[in-house]
Amino acid sequence: MNETIRHEVRKKCADLDIPLVGFAPAGRWDAPLFEPWIPEAFRPRSVFPETNTVIVIGLPVSLPVLESAPSIWYRELYRTVNALLDQAGYRIASALSAGGYPSVWIPRDGYGSISVLMEKPVAFFSHRHAAFLAGLGNFGVNNTLLTPEFGPRVRFASILTAAEIEPDPVLEKPLCIRCQRCVEACPVHALGGEDYPEGLTDKKTCATRSEALSKQFMAPCGICIKVCPVGEDRIRFLREDPEMYDERSTRFGQYHRAWKHIRSYGGG
Ligand code: SF4
Ligand code: SF4
Question: Which of 48, 61, 85, 129 is the most exposed place for a label (fewest CB within 10 A)?
């Protein structure tokens, strides 16, 4: 195992302002931890046979911007975070390859468009599962990966590398507190309320909503991740009370007026 490479990758991530980075050996994909598990064709060595380690990087979406979702503001944040992640993944893979370790980056999205997603609701590689196996978090009722730092408000990309790097342990303690806020907040009832993977998102229903929002320049939806109480970012942004998203709450009227204003412009 190469401690120097681990240190150098972490330093490069710090230079790129990437707060989350985890390392998983490719062999972890071959030892199922729950069912249904990742099919063989979707595992790192099937995609890039030289893979010994998967490096997963994560960038947060800022909670106060996400709170306006669905909105043009969140849409632009989402696109910006995606672009930064892709550039960082590309740069890390290029640096490793130049250093003698063949490496490739996998972009944070693998759908092409929402209409493609409607037909085929999976990508050729799952970053959520990679992030789980790299110890960055574990799954919530909302089917996203919850992290201690940002709850589900994180976007991920992965780098498949031939380098053998000291791995991180999988995070065993569940972060989801099963509060069901995500289930109750989903406007199209696409979440069943069971723990992952018993309760899988109704992807067609969720994608249909995304498609409608996309036509209004207000996708993605983001509601089931903004209401989740998990994540230290809630403390940082002074948003520890998830009751603030209840439209009937008079205590948070100032916030509701701001979100209404933002949603009224730039999309819709
Ligand atoms: S993204 Fe929106 S539509 Fe999809 S599950 Fe979450 S709240 Fe429901
Ligand atoms: S909102 Fe509650 S139930 Fe849903 S993922 Fe977060 S902690 Fe789990």
Answer: 48
Q: How is residue 151 annotated by DSSP?
A: B
Joined together, the tokens standing for residue 103 give 């490496």
User: Among the atoms of ligand 2, which is closest to the Cα of residue 224?
Assistant: 1
Helix (H) or strand (E) segment spanning residue 21: strand 20-25
Residues 6+ apart with CB under 8 A from 2: 163, 164, 165, 166
Pairing of strands 103-106, 154-161: antiparallel
Residue located nearest, by CA, to atom 2 of ligand 2: 179
How far, in Å, CA of 263 to CA of 241, rounded?
Answer: 22
Domain range enclosing 39: 1-268
Does residue 103 sit in helix, strand or coil? strand
The reported pTM is 0.94
Q: How many domains does the chain have?
A: 1
Contact of 159 with 92, CB cutoff 8 Å: yes
What pLDDT, in 10s, does the model give residues 210-242? 888 888 888 899 999 999 999 999 999 999 998
If you measure from the C-alpha of residue 50 to the centroid of ligand 2, how many angstroms do you get, rounded to a whole number? 37
At 13-24, the pLDDT tens digits run 999 999 999 999
The structure tokens 């092409």 sit at 112
Residue 117 has pLDDT above 90, yes or no: no
* Whole-number Cα distances in Å, 160 to 88, 125, 147, 163, 229: 13, 11, 21, 9, 32
